[in-house]
Design a protein that fits this description.
This protein is of the alpha+beta class and 154 residues long. The protein folds into two domains: 74 residues, no CATH class; 73 residues, OB fold (Dihydrolipoamide Acetyltransferase, E2P) (Beta Barrel), CATH 2.40.50. It contains three helices and six strands; from the N terminus they run αββααββββ. The chain has a six-stranded mixed beta sheet with strand order 1-4-3-2-5-6, with no helix packed on it. Helix 1 packs antiparallel against helix 2, helix 1 packs parallel to helix 3 and helix 2 packs antiparallel against helix 3. The protein is rod-shaped. The termini are far apart. Keywords: Membrane, Signal.
């Protein structure tokens, strides 16, 4: 009975905190006149690079750190007290562990890493900003192709 309640509390805390996780893996940045990031309606496009700017990624997380931290915290909290106090310690440990796990993931992730905002003028007249981790051989004025949210030389 106690194990069932403890497991239910851990699952509920994990689901609650997992629902708060960001689903986007690619940062987007506002830029005058440019649309940012990946667009499902235009997965492929051709154009010319207008500019390339160095920026930093914003450290979004997938939620995995929060889930793992929540589970570890709940297991640690379950070792404290007995009865209703143990249940409260399990829930509190899960919440604290999830918060710590999320922060650890953000610190180990993309936060502060260098990224490149590639501003592209498409052949149809639209402007797009694609943020990616490298630019390899891309230069201003290159003809490029945008495929699945990345810029490649054409």
């Amino acid at each position: 009975m106690k194990a069932t309640r403890t497991l239910a509390a851990v699952v509920a805390a994990s689901a609650l905190l997992g629902g708060c996780a960001s689903q986007s893996s690619q940062p987007s940045y506002a830029n005058d006149g440019y649309r940012s990031g990946y667009d499902n309606t235009a997965a492929t496009g051709y154009g010319t690079i207008e500019s390339i700017q160095t920026t930093t990624a914003d450290g979004r997380t997938s939620g995995a750190g929060a889930i793992v931290g929540g589970l570890v915290g709940a297991l640690a909290g379950n070792q404290v007290g007995s009865g209703g106090g143990r249940t409260a310690a399990t829930v509190a440990g899960g919440v604290a562990g999830a918060a710590i796990g999320n922060r650890v993931e953000a610190n180990r992730g993309a936060e502060g890493q260098q990224a490149y905002a590639v501003n592209v003028r498409l052949d149809n007249g639209e402007y797009r900003t694609i943020v990616q981790d490298n630019v390899y051989d891309l230069r201003v004025g290159n003809r490029v192709r945008i495929v699945d949210g990345r810029v490649y030389r054409y």
